[in-house]
Amino acid sequence: MKAVIWQGTNKIGVETVPDPTLLLPTDAIVKISSTAICGSDLHLLDGRIPSMEKGDILGHEFMGEVVEVGRDVKKLKVGDRVVVPFNLACGVCDPCKRGFFSACDNSNPNHRMAEALYGGVSGGGLFGYSHIYGGYAGGQAQYVRVPFADVGPFKIESDLRDEQVLFLTDIFPTGYQAAEQCGIMAGRDVVAVFGAGPVGQFAARSAQMLGAAQVIVIDRVPERLKMAEAAGAMTINYEQEDVLTALREATGGRGPDHVIDAVGMEAHGHGPGALLDELQVKAKISFDRITALRWAIMSCAKGGTVSMPGVYGGLIDKLPMGAAFAKGLIFRMGQTHTHRYLGPLLSRIEAGEIDPSFVITHRATLDQAPELYKTFRDKHDGCIKVVLNPWG
């Protein structure tokens, strides 16, 4: 089959590789009908996430048709159309039973590697996202092996198009969880979203669905700000005005009640902190550029929430913890517990509250993926979201 392969930092290719096979009786094989490039895939392209190996298959946003199931799979059958969460969960460990699926104790076979890097803890496994997170083959391919097949895949039984449900696999639940964990007081609270990429777009719309009185989106890319404005958000271009001053002025001086950092480890910005971040990354003593997180803490109102769906990869210093402490901020973060949101968010799509395909700007074949990775990373050609057809 064809698959998008990590060939080294800044090297992505399409290669012919062996088809996946069932390894465990709880596995399924899915023939992929649609897949996408996620903003977090760019961290792999740029070499920001350690433990990638040449030959790894990329991709964690995908859906398709079940073509084979293991003997112990009870909930799926051949022919089912499914979306598959980007993270793997066993469904029976304590975190899974409490709904914290991304913290699964059993789905990361390389947990010792993660524990060594992250101070003794490991999250669950992820499709196509380094060996720290299990080394699972990803879904930018024609077929994929899906472990824990009775837990993750979610059947789509309506006639909704792939493009309307594909993003249930990651960016829609990720944006929604980021907004939900703010505890928005409907009709009162102002929510600021740093980053108008795909997750930021869904976080902004989710905040609106949850009743935010106003949503403010901050970025520097005009077409991304325009997409946020189309949904009714106020926007700030941080290259044209001082973002902290603009947020104070927009909120009567108190700051946004909640701030979502939908940027993560590769934030752009300016000032001494941004310069020091860049120097530390180039010296390979840090993974993270944290300008967006600093701004989030500095701008958030007293008693507010800083919600962090953006990915961070290492140890962080130069964080304004004094300001966070003084204001009594609440921090919420982590990988998305995707499984818990599939049903509720599908219901919102079926009810016509949102059509997630609004975010798609580019459609391409799998063979075009290497070029589209660069287009997406460099924000050329108005690129915000790329969907790939593995059979085109």
UniProtKB/TrEMBL annotation:
<dbReference type="InterPro" id="IPR013154">
    <property type="entry name" value="ADH-like_N"/>
</dbReference>
<feature type="domain" description="Alcohol dehydrogenase-like N-terminal">
    <location>
        <begin position="25"/>
        <end position="151"/>
    </location>
</feature>
<keyword id="KW-0479">Metal-binding</keyword>
<dbReference type="GO" id="GO:0008270">
    <property type="term" value="F:zinc ion binding"/>
</dbReference>
<dbReference type="InterPro" id="IPR013149">
    <property type="entry name" value="ADH-like_C"/>
</dbReference>
<protein>
    <submittedName>
        <fullName>Glutathione-dependent formaldehyde dehydrogenase</fullName>
    </submittedName>
</protein>
<keyword id="KW-0862">Zinc</keyword>
<feature type="domain" description="Alcohol dehydrogenase-like C-terminal">
    <location>
        <begin position="198"/>
        <end position="265"/>
    </location>
</feature>
<dbReference type="Pfam" id="PF00107">
    <property type="entry name" value="ADH_zinc_N"/>
</dbReference>
<keyword id="KW-0560">Oxidoreductase</keyword>
<dbReference type="Pfam" id="PF08240">
    <property type="entry name" value="ADH_N"/>
</dbReference>
<dbReference type="InterPro" id="IPR002328">
    <property type="entry name" value="ADH_Zn_CS"/>
</dbReference>
<dbReference type="GO" id="GO:0016491">
    <property type="term" value="F:oxidoreductase activity"/>
</dbReference>
<comment type="similarity">
    <text>Belongs to the zinc-containing alcohol dehydrogenase family.</text>
</comment>
<dbReference type="InterPro" id="IPR011032">
    <property type="entry name" value="GroES-like_sf"/>
</dbReference>
<dbReference type="InterPro" id="IPR036291">
    <property type="entry name" value="NAD(P)-bd_dom_sf"/>
</dbReference>
